[in-house]
C-alpha cells in the first residue's frame, strides 16, 4: 500500500522533474568546483548562491501550492513556517560557533553575553546537535501548524477569514521575535555563523553542498507532493477545494484532511527555511514580515497554482526578476511586482504553467477532432 | 402505539421538532415517521421548512428541541455531517454539486463506501470490485460513455444523475433528494422518476419536489409541509383534495 503511494506519485511528468532536479543538484556544483573559472561553462559562486536561494523559495512556493492550489486554503502566513525552520537551523549554527564568538564565551552566543544572560535558556538545549536541530526544523513549524489548524479548521474558519488569521499569526510572531527577551537575538536575529557539520559555511565546497542539498530536498518534496495529490486523498483535497460541504455530506471529515495537508505543508516550508539560513548567513525577525508571505503567494499565482511545477517556475522567475530589478531599477521593483500580480490575475488566471497546459490540451483536442470529423462524414456533399 | 414503539420500527423518526432562525420559526413542531424501505414525497410552498428539515436530518443544523432518531435508536442531533453520512444517510442538493474538476468516474470513486480517513485514502489503491461497482453505477445513471469526462462538462441533467449516482455509491440506507428535477427537460424528468423508483426498490428515499407531474409519476405517499409542520399526509389524490392544502398551496 505504501509502495503504491510512493510509486503512484512518480508518473512520467513528475519523474522528469525529479530527474531534472537531481541532475541540477549534481551538475551545478560540479560546474562550480571542477570546471575552471576560465571556461564558459563555469558557474560562479555568486550565481550558485543566488540560485540556491531561489530553490529555497521554490520549496516554500511548492508547500504553499499544496494547501492553496490543491485544498483551497490561501495562507498569507506561510513565511512564518519558513522562518521558524530557519530559526531552528540558525540556533544550531549559533551553537557551532562555540568559543569563537567576539566575547569568547564557550557556551553562550554573543548576543546573550551582551544581554547579560547567565545561562542558556532551556529551549536552546539540544541545538548543539545537528540531528536534534534537523528534527526541530520540521517539528516546530509542524506543531504550530497543527495547533493553529486544529482550532481553525474545527471551527470551520474558511476563505478570506482564514487568510486574515494566518496573516495575523505571522505578524504576531514578527512582533514576538523582535523582543530581546525571547532569547533569539531580537532585532538582529542570528548571524556570524561559522560551521555547519564541521564545514566552514563560507567555503565554496560547503556552498555547493548546500546547493545540492536544497535541490535534492526540492526533488524529494516534489515527489511527496506528487504522491499526495495523485492519491485518493489528493482527490479528496481537490473535492474539498471545489465543494467543501458536498465532501462532508459524502462522509469525509474535511477538517482532518485540511489539518493533514496544512501540517505537511508547514513542515516543508520549515525545511525550506532551514536550507535558506546557512546560504544567506542570517535569520532575523524580518523573515516573519507579512509582505514575504504575500510575495510567496504571488510566486505561486504567477507559476500556476494547482500544478506542482508551476510554483517552482514562478518562484525562480519572479525572484530572478527581483534580483535584476533591485540592481537596475531598485525603486521600480515593488510597482513591477504589483503590476505582475494584477496582470497575471487578469490575463493568466491559471498562471504560466496552467495556461500552457490549457493551450496544449486544446491543441490535442483539435488535432484529435480534425480527422474524426472527416471520418464521421461518410457522404461528402455531392 | 406508544411513541417509543413507533420510533422502534422506523427508519427515520422526527417528533415535535422546533428550530427558529432569529425568531423565524422555520420548523415548528414537525413530526414525521418513515418506515424502512419506504419512499416518500414531500411538497410544500417556499419557506415551508423543507430544506431546514433536510439540514436537521443530515446534521448541518441542530434543532432547538425535539427528537430526531435514525433506525429508532441513533440520536442524529448528536452527530455531524460526516458521521451521519457514514451511518447511511445520503443527501442530494437542490443545485447539483458534483466535483467539477474530477472525472465522472473519480466522482463516483470518492463516494464509494470505503474508509474515509486521510491515512486510509492516502495509500488506497482502487480494487477490481470498486471498478466493477463504478461500472454498474455508470450504467444505472446512463453515463458509461462519459466516464472519463470532467464533471464540469456534463449537462445540467447529467450532473443531477451523477449526483444521484454518487448517492448510490455511498450505499446509504436513506436517501434525501432535494428537488431532483429542477431545471430538467420533460424527458429527463420522466427518466429521473424511473431512476428514483428503481433506487427505491432497495433503499428508502425522501424526495422534496415542487413538480406535481413528477410527484404523480413517483406514485408514493405524500407529506405536505406548511410553515414548519405537517399539514396533510396521504396519497397525492387525497392530499390534493384536502381543502387546507388547496388553500395554502395548490389553489394558488
Automatic annotation (TrEMBL), chain A:
Subcellular location: Cell membrane
Gene Ontology MF, one: branched-chain amino acid transmembrane transporter activity
Transmembrane segments: 14-35, 41-60, 67-89, 129-153, 160-178, 209-229, 259-277, 297-320, 332-349
UniProt cross-references to InterPro entries, sorted A to Z: ABC_transp_permease, ABC_transptr_urea_perm_UrtC, LivM-like
Main localisation: membrane
Cellular-component GO terms for this entry: plasma membrane
Membrane topology: Multi-pass membrane protein
Keywords recorded for this protein, A-Z: Cell membrane, Membrane, Transmembrane, Transmembrane helix
Protein name per UniProt: Urea ABC transporter permease subunit UrtC
TrEMBL record, chain B:
Record's keyword terms, sorted: ATP-binding, Nucleotide-binding, Transport
Matching Gene3D superfamilies: P-loop containing nucleotide triphosphate hydrolases
Gene Ontology annotations for the cellular component aspect, listed alphabetically: plasma membrane
Residue span(s) of domain ABC transporter: 12-252
GO molecular function per UniProt: ATP binding; ATP hydrolysis activity
CDD domains recorded: ABC_Mj1267_LivG_branched
Keyword Endoplasmic reticulum: no
Transmembrane regions listed in the UniProt entry: none
Source organism, top-level taxon: Bacteria
One of the Pfam families matching this protein, by short name: ABC_tran
Signal peptide, first to last residue: none
Name this polypeptide is given: Urea ABC transporter ATP-binding protein UrtD
Lineage, opening ranks: Bacteria, Pseudomonadati, Pseudomonadota, Alphaproteobacteria, Hyphomicrobiales
Gene: urtD
Amino acid at each position: 500500500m505504501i509502495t503504491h503511494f510512493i510509486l503512484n506519485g512518480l508518473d512520467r511528468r513528475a519523474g522528469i522533474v525529479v530527474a531534472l532536479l537531481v541532475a541540477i543538484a549534481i551538475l551545478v556544483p560540479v560546474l562550480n568546483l571542477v570546471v575552471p573559472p576560465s571556461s564558459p561553462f563555469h558557474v560562479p559562486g555568486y550565481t550558485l548562491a543566488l540560485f540556491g536561494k531561489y530553490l529555497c523559495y521554490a520549496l516554500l512556493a511548492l508547500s504553499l501550492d499544496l494547501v492553496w492550489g490543491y485544498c483551497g486554503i490561501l495562507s498569507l502566513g506561510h513565511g512564518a513556517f519558513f522562518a521558524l525552520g530557519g530559526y531552528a537551523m540558525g540556533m544550531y549554527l549559533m551553537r557551532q560557533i562555540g568559543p569563537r564568538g567576539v566575547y569568547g564565551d564557550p557556551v553562550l552566543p554573543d548576543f546573550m553575553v551582551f544581554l547579560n544572560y547567565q545561562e542558556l535558556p532551556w529551549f536552546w538545549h539540544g541545538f548543539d546537535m545537528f540531528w536534534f536541530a534537523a528534527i526541530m526544523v520540521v517539528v516546530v513549524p509542524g506543531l504550530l501548524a497543527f495547533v493553529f489548524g486544529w482550532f481553525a479548521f474545527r471551527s470551520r474558519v474558511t476563505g478570506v477569514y482564514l487568510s486574515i488569521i494566518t496573516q495575523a499569526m505571522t505578524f504576531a510572531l514578527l512582533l514576538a521575535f523582535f523582543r530581546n527577551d525571547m532569547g533569539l537575538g531580537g532585532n538582529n536575529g542570528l548571524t556570524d555563523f561559522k560551521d555547519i557539520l564541521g564545514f566552514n559555511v563560507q567555503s565554496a565546497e560547503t556552498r555547493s553542498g548546500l546547493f545540492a542539498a536544497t535541490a535534492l530536498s526540492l526533488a524529494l518534496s516534489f515527489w511527496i507532493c506528487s504522491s499526495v495529490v495523485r492519491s485518493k486523498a489528493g482527490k479528496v483535497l481537490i473535492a474539498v477545494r471545489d465543494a467543501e460541504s458536498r465532501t462532508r455530506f459524502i462522509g469525509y471529515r474535511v477538517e482532518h484532511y485540511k489539518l493533514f495537508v496544512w501540517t505537511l505543508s508547514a513542515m516543508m516550508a520549515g525545511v525550506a527555511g532551514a536550507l535558506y539560513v546557512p546560504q544567506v548567513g542570517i535569520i532575523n525577525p524580518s523573515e516573519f514580515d507579512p509582505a514575504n508571505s504575500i510575495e510567496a503567494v504571488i510566486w505561486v499565482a504567477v507559476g500556476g497554482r494547482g500544478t506542482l511545477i508551476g510554483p517552482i517556475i514562478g518562484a525562480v522567475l519572479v525572484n530572478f526578476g527581483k534580483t535584476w530589478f533591485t540592481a537596475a531599477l531598485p525603486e521600480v521593483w515593488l510597482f513591477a511586482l504589483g503590476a505582475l500580480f494584477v496582470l497575471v490575475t487578469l490575463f493568466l488566471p491559471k498562471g504560466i504553467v496552467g495556461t500552457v497546459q490549457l493551450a496544449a490540451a486544446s491543441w490535442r483536442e483539435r488535432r484529435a477532432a480534425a480527422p474524426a470529423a472527416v471520418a464521421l462524414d461518410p457522404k461528402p456533399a455531392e | 402505539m406508544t411513541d417509543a414503539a413507533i420510533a422502534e420500527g422506523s427508519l427515520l423518526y422526527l417528533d415535535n421538532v422546533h428550530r427558529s432562525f432569529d425568531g423565524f420559526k422555520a420548523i415548528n413542531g414537525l413530526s414525521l415517521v418513515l418506515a424502512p424501505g419506504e419512499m416518500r414525497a414531500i411538497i410544500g410552498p417556499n419557506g415551508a421548512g423543507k430544506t431546514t428539515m433536510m439540514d436537521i436530518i443530515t446534521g448541518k443544523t441542530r434543532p432547538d428541541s425535539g427528537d430526531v432518531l435514525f433506525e429508532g435508536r441513533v440520536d442524529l442531533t448528536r452527530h455531524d455531517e460526516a458521521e451521519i453520512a457514514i451511518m447511511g444517510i445520503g443527501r442530494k442538493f437542490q443545485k447539483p454539486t458534483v466535483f467539477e474538476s474530477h472525472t465522472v468516474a473519480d466522482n463516483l470513486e470518492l463516494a464509494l463506501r470505503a474508509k474515509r480517513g486521510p491515512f486510509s485514502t492516502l495509500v488506497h489503491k482502487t480494487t477490481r470490485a470498486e471498478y466493477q461497482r463504478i461500472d454498474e453505477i455508470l450504467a444505472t445513471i446512463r453515463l458509461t460513455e462519459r466516464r472519463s469526462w470532467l464533471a464540469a462538462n456534463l449537462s445540467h441533467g447529467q450532473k443531477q444523475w451523477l449526483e444521484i449516482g454518487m448517492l448510490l455509491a455511498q450505499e446509504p440506507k436513506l436517501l434525501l433528494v432535494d428537488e431532483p428535477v429542477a431545471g430538467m427537460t420533460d424527458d429527463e424528468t420522466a427518466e429521473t422518476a424511473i431512476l428514483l423508483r428503481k433506487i427505491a426498490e432497495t433503499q428508502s428515499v425522501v424526495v422534496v419536489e415542487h413538480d406535481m407531474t413528477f410527484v404523480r409519476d413517483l406514485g408514493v405517499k405524500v407529506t405536505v409541509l406548511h410553515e414548519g409542520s405537517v399539514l396533510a399526509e396521504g396519497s397525492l389524490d387525497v392530499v390534493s383534495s384536502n381543502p387546507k392544502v388547496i388553500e395554502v398551496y395548490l389553489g394558488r
